[in-house]
């Protein structure tokens, strides 16, 4: 069985946002065993898996990424879309655009403290399109 669904996440402000439950609500039916592949159709946002318990992780991840990739660097050439645009592209490359998660007993098989994050790198990124492909 292979199923695919495309959906839009609720727009969020810049930052790292737990979206596990929103992703699950939008998935096609899951098989007893298989693989979920998630792909974000944007070049200025990403997906990652990280801790789902302590919200300080979200704040710290934002601070780390902002320190790694600063705005208004004099060597940026792609600047016509705002100060957050080129850094958003670089951060999306660092975080990645897809995830692969095992499905076991009809559920996502992630660790107890793992959650799916939307990494929103634009100040106003809007709704982000996700393609979910279930193979099983």
Automatic annotation (TrEMBL):
Q: Which PROSITE patterns match?
A: UPF0047
Q: What is this protein called?
A: YjbQ family protein
Q: Which organism is it from?
A: Bacteroides muris (ex Afrizal et al. 2022)
Gene3D superfamilies reported for this sequence: YjbQ-like
The record, for InterPro entries, names: UPF0047_YjbQ-like, YjbQ-like_sf
| One Pfam family it belongs to | YjbQ
What does the similarity note say?
Belongs to the UPF0047 family.
């Amino acid at each position: 069985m292979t199923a695919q669904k495309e959906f839009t996440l609720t727009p969020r402000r810049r930052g790292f946002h737990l979206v596990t439950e929103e992703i699950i609500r939008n998935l096609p039916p899951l098989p007893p065993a298989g693989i979920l592949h998630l792909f974000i159709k944007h070049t200025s946002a990403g997906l990652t898996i990280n801790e789902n318990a302590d919200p300080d992780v979200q704040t710290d991840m934002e601070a780390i990424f902002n320190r790694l990739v600063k705005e208004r660097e004099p060597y940026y050439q792609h600047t016509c879309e705002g100060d957050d645009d080129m850094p958003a592209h670089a951060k999306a490359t660092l975080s990645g655009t897809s995830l692969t998660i095992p499905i076991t007993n009809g559920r996502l098989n992630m660790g107890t403290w793992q959650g799916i994050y939307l990494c929103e790198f634009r100040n106003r990124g809007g709704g982000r399109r996700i393609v979910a492909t279930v193979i099983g």
